[in-house]
From TrEMBL:
Its cofactor is [4Fe-4S] cluster; Mg(2+). This is Amidophosphoribosyltransferase. It comes from Parasporobacterium paucivorans DSM 15970. Keywords: 4Fe-4S, Glutamine amidotransferase, Glycosyltransferase, Iron, Iron-sulfur, Magnesium, Metal-binding, Purine biosynthesis, Transferase. The keyword Transcription regulation does not apply. InterPro entries: GATase_2_dom (IPR017932), Ntn_hydrolases_N (IPR029055), PRTase-like (IPR029057), PRTase_dom (IPR000836), PurF (IPR005854), PurF_N (IPR035584).
Length: 481
């Protein structure tokens, strides 16, 4: 049996997003595979375990789907030869990190499903909470699953609903009545590209335009990368269909605004700082978090530094608010992927040092305020503080741009079980002592809606109250055997 992914090794004490999606329809009949490839590059931070692209030609008499996927980073999986073989003006791509379902090639997406109405390709970001019931229901009526991921359940339900209704978007609408949880989906049928966002809007999804091409993708940074202009976000609960007649919208599944629950962690950590989600700049949001930390947890010091990358903007915000100079204390090795061989316990090398080194000249003899986005188990933070002190920092004051993690996430983020969370087991003062910090301050809970521009957000991993009731049992990783 595979080890459950959300209980991953202590060396990697960061949270991970599950996936990124990118779809495009070219009305001029241009090949789209290379644009998807570059779009996935821009979304690589959302998933580094596997990736894939599926394309089809809407002008061919009978549409067929070409697809290619594999384990690894986008540049590791796709060669120019592999891309050249993907012919079509309509396509969808996916990058994946697994929070449910194992890390295997079969579980890579897009999933391509051949059924009586033709072919569907599906790319999914998020996590469903009623997968066991849905999967059992499908299995009882003859479904044979090729993968262990909930996205296949979604694809099967869409295919079945499509047999009862006239269009794929109607089938997706009916499917949305059955599936519960977090999802931003892109579905490619032979003639259409359809994007759908769950009614709570947990995961981002937006629309872009480049000449005579429409794009649907997870983050606006992917639009910038391929030279497309941002059109708008897909609304929570909205289905957007792009076909030969243009772009159509179905908002019948949308909830009233205050019931929605965007994942606030997109702003704190997951999304790229150059993305704008639901009208709120991720960079501005992090800057604000830093400013609030300076207001709520001031301390005298000589230098404010961020733990790269997501701590940097918050550190700048702290500096702007406090007047304490902002500086760089860390050099990050950008070439270390998630899958590098981790040093053994007796080895003198450490994973943290392989990824991050301290600029001793910048910190020696100084009182440092170090800003990080979160503390999960605490196993990385203590090593970084030790590194700063070994490099000559006289004091290290830690400020965290999120509140303490106290609960699991069931909606696509690999927050580990509660008993592994340092804040569940210890008070803030105890955590400070464990980490060896001179002081410790977290972002106050009431600041979260403020950094998200007043949007209705999910704060479940901090409060235990989620936009919709979580499953009674922790079903993450349920189907890996
Ligand atoms: S529980 Fe936390 S990580 Fe999960 S969706 Fe809500 S805010 Fe995001």
């Amino acid at each position: 049996m595979e080890e459950k992914k959300f209980c991953s090794g202590i060396e990697d004490d960061r949270l991970h997003e599950e996936c990124g999606v990118f779809g495009i329809y070219s009305y001029d009949g241009n090949e789209v595979a290379s644009t998807i490839y570059y779009g996935l590059f821009a979304l690589q931070h959302r998933g580094q375990e596997s990736c894939g692209i599926a394309v089809c030609d809407t002008n061919a008499p009978k549409a067929k789907v070409d697809s290619y996927k594999g384990m690894g980073l986008v540049n590791e999986v796709f060669s120019s030869e592999a891309l050249d073989k993907l012919k079509g003006n309509l396509g969808v791509g996916h990058v994946r990190y697994s929070t449910a379902g194992g890390s295997t090639r079969e579980n890579a997406q897009p999933l391509v499903l051949h059924y009586i109405k033709g072919t569907l390709a599906l790319a999914h970001n998020g996590n469903l909470i009623n997968t066991p019931e849905l999967r059992e229901e499908l299995a009882r009526t003859g479904a044979i699953f090729q993968t262990t991921i909930d996205s296949e359940v979604v694809a099967y339900i869409i295919a079945r609903e499509r047999l009862k209704c006239g269009t794929v978007e109607e089938a997706i609408r009916l499917t949305m009545d059955k599936i519960k949880g977090a999802y931003s989906l892109i579905v490619m049928s032979p003639r259409k590209l359809v994007g759908a966002r769950d009614p709570f809007g947990f995961k981002p999804l937006c629309i872009g335009k480049r000449d005579n091409e429409y794009i649907i993708t997870s983050e606006s940074c992917a639009l910038d990368t391929v030279g497309a202009e941002f059109v708008r976000d897909v609304l929570p609960g909205e289905i957007v269909t792009i076909d030969k007649d243009g772009i159509h919208s179905d908002t019948s599944a949308c909830l009233s605004g205050h019931k929605t629950g965007r994942c606030v962690f997109e702003y704190i950590y997951f999304a790229r700082p150059d993305s704008v989600i639901d009208g709120i700049s991720v960079y501005q949001s992090r800057l604000m978090a830093g400013k609030y930390l300076a207001i709520d947890h001031p301390v005298e010091a000589d230098l404010v530094v961020g733990v790269p990358e997501s701590g940097n903007a918050a550190a700048l915000g702290y500096s702007m608010q406090s007047g304490i100079p902002y500086g760089t204390a860390f050099v990050k090795n950008s070439y270390v992927g998630r899958t590098f061989i981790k040093p053994g316990q007796k080895s003198r090398e450490s994973s943290v040092r392989v990824k991050l080194n301290v600029l001793a000249e910048a910190v020696r003899g100084k009182r440092i305020i170090m800003i990080d986005d979160s503390i999960v188990r605490g196993t990385t933070s203590d090593r970084i503080i030790t590194m700063l002190k070994e490099a000559g920092a006289t004091e290290v004051h830690v400020r965290i741009s999120s509140p303490p993690f106290l609960y699991e996430c069931f909606f696509g983020t690999d927050v580990p079980e509660r008993k592994q969370l340092i804040a569940y087991n210890h008070s803030i003062e105890e955590i400070r002592q464990i980490l060896g910090a001179d002081s410790l301050g977290y972002l106050e809970l009431e600041r979260l809606p403020q950094i998200a521009g007043g949007l209705s957000i999910c704060m479940g991993c901090f409060t235990g109250t989620y936009p919709l009731n979580p499953p009674e049992e922790d079903i993450r990783g349920e189907f890996q055997e």
